[in-house]
Amino acid sequence: MNFDKFTKKSIELLGKFIVLAMPKKTLVNEELSAKYMKTGDIEFDFSTGEFFTCGFAKEILTPDDVKDEKYFIAGYDSNNKAKDVLDDMFARAIYIDDNKGNGGVVICAIDAVGMSRKDINDIRKLVLESEETGKLKSINICCTHTHSAIDTQGLWGEKIYKSGRNDEFMTKLKEKTAKAIINAYKNRTDGKLYFSCIETEELQYDCRTPETFDRNLNMIHFVPENKGKKEIYLVNFASHAELLGSKTKSVSADFPCYMIKEIEENNTNCEVVYINGAIGGMISAKEIKKVYRNTIDCEEYTKEFGKTLGKLVYNLSDEEEIEPIINIKSKQINVPVENFVLTLARFLKVLNNDFIKKKKDAFVISEVGYLVLGKRQVAVFLIPGELFPELYNGEFLNIDTSANKCESDYTPLIKITDIKKSFVVGLCNDELGYIIPKNDFYLNEKTPYINSGNDHLNRNHYEETNSVGPRTAETILDTLSSIVVSSQGLGTRKKEAGNRK
After folding, report:
1. Distances in Å between the alpha carbon of 14 and those of 6, 17, 38, 62?
2. Which of 363, 386, 471, 495 could form a disulfide with 280 if both were Cys (CB 3.0 to 4.6 A apart)?
3. Does pTM surpass 0.90?
């Protein structure tokens, strides 16, 4: 008997059995899952408003009883109990409106490793039912992906079959995040919006081929008309926030905290929101291998890395003023769940993502979004997980270098629109793990999704064990392509077959 094939077949059968055995209370209704999702503009309107109106607010999320209560640090090893606090977890929200009567857009960043769309919708519900925000056309909540914050997903508990989430903490986190969003609306003031970016050097590292990533540090800058109000910086950069290393037992927002501190110390009249980019692959800081081995002072390195980014931000020049126009469109998607480990985690209530079942297959309900600032001046892709950068920039592996010995057949994000300036917001409105091109999606032949596999070039494929499955990328890119094509006036290049070349 071929025991390798027997093991693989057994795992496949186990996955199907878990799907079939999932009780109804574990599943959700698609329509109800979309109840608190604001889909944005039906059609994009590029007429110009008189001015932008923006607001900012933040709330501390760190509980007071970290030393006394049981909280697990998320991102590296499970059963890693927090012992103290290095710096606080925050929810930071910005409200943006072009004053054309279509409603405002919220972007909120939470210092956490990731959050399910179920939890995101709980926050949206609190905001919308408060009736304190006026008209909103989109509420977007993303995570900074710090690996030193309290577990908000459930995967880092004491036991593999037991959630690491603290229910009381999660309830307060949702309430405080909703409060930050509401107050961002209340704190709004009129002014101008600017965009700038700079290509960074020697800051990032790609742990997996192809060695490619977005080197740009991007910034949306709001300057209020009233000089008594604070400026707002919305900063985007692609890097795993994991620089404190696996041995840390301190709650922290990791390097984004120290980037923000550096900016605020240089400009005391500003507030900052940090949003992560396309970090799949895995995109991290230059010295990440030393961090993994804990051969450097991780705390010092974290602070210096953040400080370096902060200096780049406040030295940015050549800002382009954005015309008072903001368009956004989001769409709910059903992503096929082929990773039976995630299905099992949902079955055991370790995870709480919105699952549905169709015949013998499980799907996770998620969403994607597309935002355009000005008259097609800046495009922003809202991605529910850790996107491999080549899905954005098109630098795919080829027949000789890919795991499956074939070319990629995706049209990358930068080519589905003719807007020249763009960036990705990762871990936005959900966390689906790694989003991997299908031509390089490779599983362990004996124990798929349990252990990582090594391909014909002996490249390790760890990321696949933390992915929903090989069809995630096409589901996301095809949907975004349809959104761009349907958005009137975008000058898109229509595809004959969805997102395929």
Report:
1. 12, 5, 37, 39
2. 386
3. yes
